[in-house]
Write a structure and sequence with these properties.
674 residues; alpha+beta; single chain; 8-stranded mixed β-sheet; Rossmann fold; 5-stranded mixed β-sheet
Length: 674
């Protein structure tokens, strides 16, 4: 990946990334970056209606095309035998079984745009179902198996084509947005029929049990800043007549029908002005319209509905560093946790027709993600707050790591500066020595409502296990604002961004020093997105604490961020004002305010086309550090947005971070490669 810009304030030679790879390969049992990035990952299971088979997608790196691609596999639940279901150019994903189990539909871009295909589960050639101009984004089988509903973005209008032909391409901001609408198409053949019209974008879709109507969420346009406008409506399939069902402030989305078709469950902020950090609840509404009934007020975390079965509403949620499946009784409002084990993560739940079995993806502190199948328990045990799922592992993807020497992981906790209890994931070498003080590297997650979980190889941009192999401990703090700890915890960095977050990071470092684990003179910090912002805050505000910092796609100045980002409501909610209303809070929480205090060597990594945290943030921090004669390097990844979604760029970022901290934490000399 070419570097668009390289800036340094001390004599420094850019080493080609080949040199770093050569250094780490020499250690027995330590996987190379290519080994890690080439690992195949099983994702997105879809269990058959009768529970006998599971289709899932396997993601792997195509280094020749510099892309991650997915293909579908199918596994027999009884024997565990698995085989390819698709094997074509591009990617195939989003598998969904026909209600009678006779076919598997999926999306594929093998023809250039994402279209619906269908294939028999016993193999053969897939047939193309749709040929929609520009492709489509999502689909759902009707319960009778005869039709699909799908969502497609409107094609470029003739007027826009004529304008581009006459004047060249340009964009009128907030006016040239294209809408996305709901269609139905026969599952065997026929032309798609459009059901909705108007200035809105359709999101999630759900067929009613009788297939006569489709519930869908929609917002005013495709701009990410409009997410708070999401409401829910119902379209009649016969003639496309649409009626509003849920209309209120704040996002309402992800409709799920009750088995009898009388009610619809959905996720909602119930009109909260601060929906970026308040709880998302599950509510229900009569399908014919009426008052809303909020069911999860007593459940203090985001609740995301997955399906509504005979025994209740199933939803997923985080529980501190873990995540589980839950079942909600819509009458009593009682919630039961259904987990493979209390200390595990589970996601991607999919159910049989009778809801007697579930397939899902899961991981824990020692094993990366695998797919599982489990029988669902019936009624909960009296007085129980959880049920143990007797899960059978369906895949063995973690076998790829056989022979690798990776860090161990444990959850630690400490008191922050204001007394708030903070948890984090601590990575240690397998030959950890009590009484030895190790260098410490802090890896800070994004969000801020992200979360670090104790599972191996969860990061890609930051080579945690390679840092540990070089003799460091790695701490991933779940700072205030992280998901999994309740609404009150998520609100602790409101009008306190950066400031309170830094308390949590620094107090974690102090805790490990006090425990006798860490050499306080060799500490570094890094993170991407919100983690990059916190890292930038640390490099300018707490410079004596850290020997080196890496800022990935981070915010350097909240005013710069606010006027450039694609999610303006985020800033208005967390800082509770605009730069013109309250310039003081924007200054207090901005790394650039403290730039004259900076002296920490800083690596800045940023995508050229980042809309979420636009590139001016990187240049502002870069120039400020240069003006302070602070060692700094800015790497701009050409053609990338907010994340690095190609293997070669990810590898380059890993190598750059290993090299940067190798120099400033371990005192290594950069080497020049031909």
């Amino acid at each position: 990946m070419p570097l668009c810009r390289l800036g340094v304030m001390v004599p420094m030679v850019l080493s080609l990334t080949v040199g770093v790879s050569a250094l780490v390969r020499a250690q027995p049992g330590l996987p190379t970056f290519d080994d890690i990035l080439s690992m195949k990952a099983a994702q997105s299971p879809a269990i058959s209606p009768d529970g006998r088979a599971v289709v899932y997608q396997v993601r792997e790196a195509n280094w020749d095309k510099n892309a991650w691609e997915t293909e579908l596999w199918i596994a027999d639940v009884a024997s565990g035998a698995a085989r390819h279901l698709t094997n074509a150019e591009g990617s195939s994903n989003s598998a969904a079984w026909a209600p009678d189990g006779s076919q598997v539909a999926f999306l594929s871009d093998r023809g250039g745009t994402r279209q619906i295909y269908a294939i028999r589960p016993d193999g053969g050639e897939a047939r193309q179902v749709t040929s929609v101009d520009g492709g489509l984004s999502r689909f759902a089988w009707a319960h009778d198996g005869a039709r699909f509903a799908f969502v497609a973005t409107d094609p470029v209008s003739d007027a826009r084509k004529a304008r581009d032909e006459r004047a060249g391409e340009f964009e009128i901001v907030d006016e040239d947005l294209r809408m996305a609408h709901l269609y139905v198409v026969d599952a065997e053949d026929g032309e798609p029929r459009r059901l909705t019209e108007g200035p809105f974008v359709v999101g999630s879709i759900a067929w009613s049990p009788d297939d006569m109507t489709i519930a869908f969420d929609h917002r005013i346009n495709s701009d990410p800043s409009s997410s708070g406008s999401a409401d829910i409506s119902i379209a009649r399939v016969s003639d496309g007549a649409v009626r509003a069902l849920v209309e209120q402030a704040g996002p309402d989305s992800r409709p799920v029908w009750s088995p009898d078709g009388l009610r619809i469950a959905f996720t909602t902020s119930m009109g909260s002005e601060w929906f970026y950090y308040t709880n998302r609840e599950i509510a229900t509404v009569p399908a014919e319209g009426g008052s809303l009934d909020v069911l999860t007020v007593a459940f203090d975390e985001h609740a995301s509905p997955v399906a509504w079965g005979p025994r209740g509403i199933y939803f997923s949620a985080s529980d501190r560093t873990w995540s589980h499946l839950y079942r909600l009784d819509p009458n009593s409002r009682s919630v039961v946790r259904l987990s493979r084990a209390p200390e595990s993560t589970s996601a991607g739940f999919t159910f049989t027709r009778t809801f007697d079995a579930v397939a899902f993806a899961g991981a824990n502190a020692t094993t990366g993600q695998e797919l599982f199948v489990a029988s669902l328990p019936g009624q909960p045990t009296e007085g129980s707050d959880g049920e143990h799922l007797q899960a059978t592992r369906l895949t063995r993807m973690w076998d790829q790591a056989d022979g690798w020497t990776l860090a161990t992981r444990e959850v630690v906790s400490w008191a922050s500066r204001d007394g708030t209890n903070i948890e984090g994931v601590l990575h240690k070498p397998v030959d950890f020595e009590a009484g030895r003080r190790y260098p410490l590297l802090v890896v800070i997650h994004g969000g801020p409502t992200g979360i670090s979980r104790p599972q191996p190889l969860a990061y890609r941009t930051y080579p945690l296990d390679h840092f540990v192999a070089k003799g460091a401990l790695v701490l991933e703090p779940n700072y205030r604002g992280s998901a999994g700890y309740g609404a009150g915890f998520r609100a602790l960095n409101v009008r306190n961004l950066g400031v309170g977050d830094a308390w949590d990071v620094v107090s974690g470092v102090d805790h490990l020093i006090a425990e006798g684990l860490v050499d306080g003179d060799r500490v570094g910090a890094m993170g991407w997105s919100q983690g990059g912002y916190i890292s930038a805050f640390l490099t300018t505000h707490d410079s004596d604490r850290f020997r080196a910092v890496s800022v990935g796609a981070g915010i350097s100045n909240w005013m710069t961020y606010y006027v450039n980002t694609d999610i303006h409501p985020f800033t208005r909610q967390y800082l509770q004002g605009t730069p013109w209303d309250d310039p003081e809070i924007y200054a207090t929480t901005s790394p650039m305010t403290y730039i004259t205090q900076a002296n920490t060597p800083t690596l800045i990594q940023h995508g050229e086309l980042d809309r979420r945290v636009p590139l001016p943030n990187a240049y502002e921090l870069y120039q400020g550090l240069r003006d302070q004669d602070v060692p700094v390097r800015l790497v701009v990844f050409k053609g990338f947005g907010h994340g690095l979604n190609k293997p070669k760029a990810t590898r380059a970022a890993m190598e750059q971070n290993l090299e940067w901290f190798g120099r400033y934490i371990w005192g290594e000399t950069e080497t020049t490669q031909p």
